[in-house]
């Protein structure tokens, strides 16, 4: 079994898409091991996205990710990282495949409704960023 971190970003929560995304997570067979709703401070958003700190969109991304509540989920499944990324679709929703969450729900490159870890080591780090082990079910 593999674990990954999924985020339902503030745009999706604000648009009332939380339920649609949670339903898809269950339909795809992911086991939800932990889940919480929270609002990141800008310091926390900067820390979470530190790999992008030199990018021109960093400040805007931090502002967006700390603009409202988001939902963090620890998902578990065989091949969870790749599977969740395929359900999300490409970062740019205009390039995302038909049937993916970003194609269906995203409104801009930045406001792309969901996040997923991209590899095993980043998944471990990102899960630890949001959850302590006693929060796992
Ligand atoms: P995600 O892959 O979850 O994490 C990095 C985020 O940065 C990405 O989703 C987008 O929301 C955002 N992003 C990536 N590239 C750009 C870009 N060129 N312009 C604005 N935002 C971007």
Describe the structure.
The protein is an alpha+beta fold and 137 residues long. 41% of the residues lie in helices and 19% in strands. The chain has 7 helices and 4 strands; from the N terminus they run βααβααβααβα. The protein has helices at 10-15, 18-27, 42-48, 58-65, 80-88, 101-105, 120-130; strands at 2-8, 31-38, 70-77, 114-116. The protein has a 4-stranded antiparallel sheet with strand order 2-3-1-4. Helix 3 (42-48) packs across helix 4 (58-65). The protein is globular, with a radius of gyration of 14 Å. The two termini are 15 Å apart. The mean pLDDT is 98. The chain binds adenosine-3',5'-cyclic-monophosphate. Adenosine-3',5'-cyclic-monophosphate (CMP) binds at residues 52, 57, 61, 91, 109-110, 112, 115.
The secondary-structure class comes to alpha+beta
Bound molecules: adenosine-3',5'-cyclic-monophosphate
| Residue share in β-strands | 15-25%
> Alpha-carbon distance between the termini?
15 Å
H/E series, N to C?
Answer: EHHEHHEHHEH
Based on CA inertia axes, which overall geometry fits? Answer: globular
Number of strands: 4
């Amino acid at each position: 079994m593999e674990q990954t971190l999924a985020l339902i970003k503030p745009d999706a929560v604000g648009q009332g898409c939380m339920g649609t995304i949670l339903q898809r997570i269950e339909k795809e067979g992911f086991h939800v091991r932990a889940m919480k709703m929270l609002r990141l401070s800008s310091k926390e958003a900067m820390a979470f996205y530190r790999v992008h700190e030199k990018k021109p969109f960093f400040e805007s991304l931090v502002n967006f990710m700390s603009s409202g509540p988001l939902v963090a989920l620890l998902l578990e499944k065989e091949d969870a990282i790749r599977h969740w990324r395929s359900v999300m679709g490409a970062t740019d929703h205009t390039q995302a495949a038909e049937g993916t969450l970003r194609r269906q729900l995203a409104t801009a490159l930045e406001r792309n409704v969901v996040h997923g870890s991209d590899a095993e080591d980043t998944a471990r780090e990102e899960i630890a960023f949001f959850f302590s082990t006693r929060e796992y079910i």
